[in-house]
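User: Fold this, then the next.

Assistant: Folding the first:
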Amino acid sequence: MSVTSASARTFRSLQRHRNYRLFFGGQAVSISGTWVQNIAQAWLIVELTHSPTGSPLALGALAAFQFLPYTVFGLLGGPLVDRFDKRITIIATQTTLMLTAAALALLSLTGQATVWEVFLLAAVGGAVQVVDMPARQAFVFEMVGRKELPNAVSLNASLFNLARAAGPAVAGVLIATLGVTVCFAVNAASFLAVIGSLLLMRTAELYRGERDEEQQGVLHSLGEGVVWVVHTRAAWLTCGLMLVVSTFGINFSVLLPVMATVTLRSGPVVFGILTACFGFGALVGALFTAAVGRPSWPILLWGGAAFSALLVVLAPLHWVIACGAMLVVTGVAFTTYTSMSNATVQLAAPDRLRGRAMAFYGYIFTGVPAPLGGLLAGWLSSVGGTQLAFLVGGGVSLAAVSTAAGVRRGGI
């Protein structure tokens, strides 16, 4: 296969769909701004606690506050997304997130920010994600249709991880030179790009699926989605494995700041570099899955196994270059696994249940694991450093992948 044909296959959703090109461009700016804020927010917690060695539990608490609303209400977002216009819904959620970023910038600028105020704004942002996350994921189908969906899902992952690579690097420099306030202001401005892209779309070109009946109760609608997941083998096996891996293995928002400050005894620049290394690897993994096309169970399982094993390898490292290099490889495995999981659930879902299916997947991916896993990772780091946290996370995740592989072979 020529390089030209491989490239065309990798980016075909962008080539064929104007609405998706607009969305992709707007998200490129907005998600980069979000990552700049994520890094600055974590670093602000380190500064407000006045002690890098005393911050692991505070960072774990930040993760808990950020994702606790999703843990409590996450499944309710699916029924709402399935009955309202997804494009309008995303405009509303992105506008709200822009206002929370602006509030954080104002607090930081005036020197009035406290740990609890940062926690509160993180919780507000988490509450918005209850609707925003499933709406954005389900909206991908409306922009590209079923045939191009797996490719677009992988391209979305590549976009997210390109931002993961660029955003932290920019944040590290901005924090070191101008402070965290500028990072929050940059994120607030970045939301204008995605809101503008949604307003410029041609709605007649969207692939409108069957919408949920509006008179159906939210709880009844939610129950219908849960029943579908429980009775669909591809969905429950994918989500069950993701629940374990996310809870124990995907806690980088807590562990990388601690690795930079405590394990490697460095500052915000190294923190940004480590996060960017992981993001670069994740970008490579996303482009690989975009070229593959349809989801594949062998690739999904191998990606999960490689990610888990690499966490174990990462645990004893104490050299910046070695940690950065290992995070690049870990990022490749991470996105290979998560992109395949996302596309598997999306393609298995009927059109009218796609919002609920993605809400359930998002709930399993972040709603339950993020607060519990964040607190667990913070506690493990305070007891035995990032070495213990990575070792436990990788070991438990590897056991889960092995179990899932056995269940699949057994035809259960």
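Now the next one, as you asked:
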Amino acid sequence: MTPPPLSPKTLSLVFASLLVLVLGTTLIGFLNLGHFNIVVAVAIAVIQACLIAGFFMQALYEGKIVHIILTGGVVWFLIMETLTLGDYMTRGWLPIPGK
């Protein structure tokens, strides 16, 4: 099955939005939002990944098996983020011996 061709206008708009999001990520790095710097940066990265996978990799026009694989990747990412965040949040719970 061949995917429908995307118009150059659509691809140009997606590319321009990716450039704006990269600029936003860079500018967020200079702001002091406290703990929300990471949240905003990851949210922008997720939007960028969705645009790249959807339009440039043409995942929007693929069959069900590709959607299942993409969903599995997202679920795996969320599992890894949850475990990492759980480790990070509980670092100070136990006292350090000798202090």
